[in-house]
Design a protein that fits this description.
Order of helices and strands: HHHHHHH
Number of domains: 3
Radius of gyration: 28 Å
Helix content: 55-70%
Strand content: under 5%
Largest sheet: none
Distance between the termini: 64 Å
Length: 141
């Protein structure tokens, strides 16, 4: 039975209850335990779950669909095209415009908040300063 539900049994049960409400309370899993459907039919239902359901999100670890990735690619491409156009048509004495950063996607590092990054840099510098002072002035230990 657990082989049918796979690695994400709660997500499978949620998807089954959502897509097969006609099986009543507990969905198809409860219907199987009540003897109303066979294990084979339950497996067929699980294998036929949609690619945008709870099981797919649990397996991927995020909620992005293929369409979301395509939209991010479109935004990246449009930004590069506009920047290239502006750079080609700029005045000769004006500086070249930098290309935009790609849109964040799942799996990329989370962009840092500039204020947090500056504070962490300040704390690291302070720790380095105190470490050097401790080596130079051993009496302060």
């Amino acid at each position: 039975m657990l082989d049918v539900l796979g690695d994400y049994p709660e997500a499978v049960e949620a998807d089954l209850a959502h897509h097969y409400p006609e099986y009543g309370a507990g969905g198809p899993v409860a219907a199987y335990w009540r003897g109303e459907i066979t294990l084979r039919w339950l497996r067929v239902m699980v294998e036929g779950l949609p690619p945008d359901g709870a099981v797919a999100r649990a397996a991927r670890g995020h909620h992005w669909t293929q369409a979301d990735y395509h939209r991010a690619d479109d935004v990246d491409l449009l930004g590069r095209l506009v920047t290239a156009f502006l750079n080609v048509n700029r005045a000769e004495n004006s500086p070249e415009m930098p290309y935009p950063e790609p849109v964040w996607r799942p799996g990329d590092p989370v962009p840092e908040d500039p204020a947090t990054a500056a504070e962490e840099k300040r704390l690291a510098a302070r720790r380095a300063f105190e470490h050097i002072n401790a080596q130079v002035r051993p009496e302060k230990r």
